[in-house]
Design a protein that fits this description.
Length: 332
Amino acid sequence: PESSHLYVAVHKSVLSGFLSNIAVIKEMNIFQAPKGKEVMIVPGSTLFNTAKDWIVAAEWVETSRLFGRTCANIDNAWLEKLGGRLCKRTYLHPHWERKSGRVAAYEQVSLFGLIIIPQRKVSYGSIDPERATTIFIQSALVEGDVKEKFGFMNFNQDLIDNVRNLEDRIRRRDILVTEADLFDFYSKRLKECCDIGTLKAYIKQRKNDDFLRMKPEDIIRYDPDEKELSLFPDRLDLGNLSLGCDYRFAPGSVDDGVTVSIPASMANSVTSESLEWLVPGLYREKITALIKGLPKTFRKKLVPVANTVDIITFPFYLFPFRRRYTGIGLVG
């Protein structure tokens, strides 16, 4: 039987001497052979109409076409070991795997141009350490795609979140450094580190993770102007109420702008109109939108719009907190 040790041993022995005569099936009795050749099992063969996916032939004979004679079924799993250094390995789609905590790739093995192992997952770190480290740093550390958060990652993320909150507050996206800068920070400190185990070894060797903790200067391009920040207060005073507010810079989103937290017990006593003009930093966008919404007869008297907005908003920017809401308008 084909499963017996003797059968396998005999076929492996024969195969080792005819490695260049292997072929993989294309259709009934037609096989793809090495070097782009197409071969047909000779009609008189015992494997004619019964051959499996892989065969080896004792010889190729070309008459009206190329035929394989004295053929035998083989298992393509035998070929990698028998082919040895003749096998060619290609590594496809290197990627980060969160579950296993490593950079992996799919190995494809071919022999004489025939793919004998289409896809096998392998660790990519030993194959291309430099590229594997790049993938690890970008996916695991910069993007934070890990099962367990390390202390330095939580620390750095808090710094980044604080800077993003500043950007949301002043409605700009130019304070936080780019992802490329964050990548450079880690890549200067981690060499050939492409899995969680190696990262832990680095930290253990250094006694702590301080070398991976960022400082404000590592992630901030510049410090925002204090006067500009004062136009976007953390809290808004409305009568006897002091209300906390959260900022979000996401034009077009429903939560773009400022969200004010109001105690449920006071919700009915605070109208939305009473909050619309309490954040000086938002005046410019509001006034610009109001001017652009005016009828053309009035709008053309206010061009250029940017200059008009500067004139209107200047007093409020100069004295951002010297005002109170009367229910009708702003009073200095």
